[in-house]
Amino acid sequence: MIRTTHIDDFFTIAQADFFPNEKLQVNSAILKGRDYCVVWDTFSYPRNMMEFSQHLEKKTAMAVYSHADWDHCWGTCGYPFEHVVAHTNSLDRFENELPSTLKKMRNEHANGWKGVKLITPDVTFDEKLTIDMGYYSLELYQFRGHTSDSIVGFIPEWGVLLGGDSFEAVPVINDPAEVPLWLHNLESWIKRSDVKKVFPGHGSLTDKTIMVKNYEYLQGLSEKKMLPAPVDSKFYQQVHTDNLKKMGVVLGKQSKS
Ligand SMILES: [Zn+2]
Question: Which residues form the Metallo-beta-lactamase domain (predicted)?
Fold first, then answer.
């Protein structure tokens, strides 16, 4: 089951569970253009994408991956997309990481991801790619930090920034070496006066404050400050504990994700 919210005639967002027996949810969005639609991230289950595709009004659609983390791109085979767009660095992840992650998760959760077929992007870019939607445009930019293939999508006509996991209640640090770049990217987007709304990969449609909070958090950990967990949920407390260890603020072994 997905929870859908129509923001306006051109922009629909949805949330769905992405892990068995957990309340964790992942976001997706549909952007309606004149001749075709774009789906920003495709959930983790094809059945969720199938349900969300009712809002595509049978138009041709392309999917865009904010990054190749499994919870954002395993639902793609739930709809026959004409193209799948992502950052060039995602290709390596589709080749080497995702097949083994899928195998592992299928073993651990019987029936969990039964009909999942990995759909590798067929259109990739490095720095920037603009999609002409007819009434407006969708600009895709690299946003390295959370992962090496993270991107953001910006709609200048609306001031909406689609973020994947580049912005999150507690940002998930995978590689501490990427954090300086992450900070740099956050800083340049925080400075922009044309960003009005921010749509993260998890959680509600919000505004720039999430970027400011993420910047302060990542900057604090870079300075080895012992920060409190920004959010009081079991999941994010664990993320925070792992972040502290990864950034060398506290010593200890990270939990296996
Ligand atoms: Zn995610």
Answer: 25-202
Structure tokens at 39: 């789906």
Q: How far is CA 139 from CA 75, 156, 158, 243, in A?
A: 23, 8, 12, 30
State how far the alpha carbon of 192 is from the alpha carbons of 145, 156, 197, in Å.
19, 11, 12
Q: For residue 171, how far is its CA from the centre of ligand 1 (angstroms)?
A: 10
pLDDT-based confidence at 253, cuts 50/70/90? confident
User: What are the structural domains, with CATH classification, of the chain?
Assistant: 2-246 (3.60.15.10)
Total Cβ atoms within 10 A of residue 132: 11
Q: How far is the CA of 201 from the centre of ligand 1 (A)?
A: 6
Cα–ligand 1 centroid distance for 93 (angstroms): 15
Q: What is the mean pLDDT of the chain?
A: 95
Over the stretch 131-170, which tens digit does the pLDDT of each residue have?
A: 999 999 999 999 999 999 999 999 999 999 999 999 999 9
pLDDT value, residue 255? 66
Distance (Å) from CA 96 to ligand 1 centroid: 19
